[in-house]
Amino acid sequence: MKIIGILLVPLTSMVVLWGVITAVTATESLELREYKTLWTNLRHPAYKLINEIQRERLVSAKHLRHMAAQPAVETQRSRTDAAEITFRRLSDNSKDRSEEIRTQVNAVYTQLNRLDVIRGEIDTSLSDRLHAVESYDAIVDTLFGLHRRVALIDDIPIYEQSRVVIDMSYAKELLTREQAIALGPTTAAERRTFTQIVGNRRFLVDQALGELDPPLRDPQVTLITSATYQRMRMMEDQIISGRSPNDWLSVTEELAESFQDVQMRASANLNARADPVADEVLNRAHLLAGTALVLVIVSIVFSLRMGNRLSRELGALRLAALEVAQERLPHVVGKLRGGERVELPEVSVASSTVEIDDVGQAFSTVQQTAVEAAIGQARLNDGVGHVFRNLARRSQTLLHRQRIQLEDMQHRATDPDALEDLFKLDHLTTRMRRHAEGLIILSGATPGRGWSRPVPLLDVARGAAAEVEDYPRVTVEPMSGQRLAGPVVGDVIHLVAELIENATVYSPAHTQVIVRGEEAARGFVFEVEDRGLGMSAEVLADLNERLASPPEFDLADSDRLGLFVVSRLAARHDIRVTLRGSPYGGTTAIVLIPAEHVADPDPEPHVKEPARPMRVVRSE
């Protein structure tokens, strides 16, 4: 009873799976056979109705140009009505196969109900030529929507070819639209519409030909490469330029009939392909069902003998592995990061199966190796942090002494060229100081630079721009007078300077980097915008994720030290940094400083009015 209880669920699942495979495969065969029924009741009568509507549209266009008498129009309308009646009668047999098909067929009915209105507008001259053609176009578009809906089939090759054949049929529809518009001299609006239709048809034909398989493509290629088709393309160019070719109607009539014959043969070819595929699917269903049944029987016999023992041993191994992965290793790694010592017991699983026992021993080895690697990594990170911190502190001491000497030399310098060189050295020292602070940040410590009083945010932006090598390219736009709290001034200057430097490095040397600032509802926003080549959406998403959740510093990823420093500084003060594309093609960095770090502007001092008016004296 225990064996049966253990094996009941998987064996039942296998039986159900066997039934599902059989039912699904057989259903697929029936759906393929239904494809032929839908062709007979929906697609074929729809093609005939489209053909008659195309002819009625043409004769109506002739009538509006006084090229066709009313009896000819009435004759064609009668043929269209007959095709409509046939379509409605046959579509009633298959429109309820699915909700999607029923919705599309009802949409076709709605458009067909407008035929009397369209005809009345033409007869009473209330509709111009272009409006009449477009009214018929709307009816045909819904019929082609029905074609695309009905052409869905589980066999991918047939579906792909059917979709392309429908596109080619629609190209023929576009040709008949051109034919109706350009029967004679055209207006500017008609030529614009004609030009759009020509472009769409040519694109559709070029795209579809490459996707057809040879039996369906060869007749299409023969038609497209014919002299008549090339002549028609030349006539299209003439009509677009404002001329009216004399034999436009005859050439397009011949091509429209040829297109119709080729598309109908292609559609019939695809319809014939569905039956052999359905038979093959049904045979495959029988084979799969028989094979699955044999496998079910074999599985039952084998499972009764081996299932009980293996399930117990594997269950014990699973529990041990889950304990290691979900509890023991995370607990050990947490202790190691806190500097504590750990001892690991081995993973033991009582098993009479050699393979399961080996897996248990392997888990013990993996556990020990992971802990040793975590210990080594923790020691390495701590050592690297100490190295970074010591190097940075020494560099800061030397740079501080260097700045004092440079300031003294600047005060004593009298030569303008020498003074300019001293200023360049002072700027270089400022940049070196920022890089030293970057090492301190990488080590996990806090740089010592800070201010005791709030600093205007405009001065913060200018200070950040001054720490960049290519500072002449940086434009700091005027901004409101809000001030930044002194304890965070140094870190914000460092953060914005890293973003500005990145913008100058990854943008052409002749372009500007713009720094803007404005008050926001939740604080103050800096924008650093470059006009470089920009980044892809995937790269932007990756960088924004790193900025939002600073990762552990990776020594191998030294190319992104600036990004790591920015993320560390932003996380320290709850600052949000976001990268996005710029309208100029480059990248914009947005820095949102929380409101708790931003103070109101200094109150403007009251200026006392002068006792007497001042007079400006201009010299000659």
Characterization of this structure:
This protein has 620 residues and is an alpha+beta fold. The chain folds into three domains: 1-294, no CATH class; 353-448; 451-599, Heat Shock Protein 90 (2-Layer Sandwich). Helices cover 70% and strands 6% of the residues. The chain contains 16 helices and eight strands. The strands form two sheets. The chain has a five-stranded mixed β-sheet. A three-stranded antiparallel β-sheet has the order 1-3-8. α11 (354-412) runs antiparallel to α12 (416-442). It starts with a helix and ends in a 21-residue tail after the last strand.
Low-confidence stretches: 606-620
Amino- and carboxy-terminal Cα gap:
119 Å
H/E element order: HHHHHHHHHHHHEHEEHEEHHEEE
Tally the structural domains. 3
Helix amount, in percent?
Answer: 55-70%
Cα gyration radius (Å): 40 Å
Strand order of the largest sheet: 2-4-5-7-6
Number of strands: 8
- Taken as a percent bin, the fraction of beta residues is 5-15%
Q: What overall geometry do the principal axes of the alpha carbons give?
A: flat
Annotation field: number of helices:
16
The description of the largest β-sheet is: 5 strands, mixed
What does the average pLDDT come to?
77
Keywords: Kinase, Membrane, Phosphoprotein, Transferase, Transmembrane, Transmembrane helix
Protein name: histidine kinase
Enzyme class: transferase
EC number: 2.7.13.3
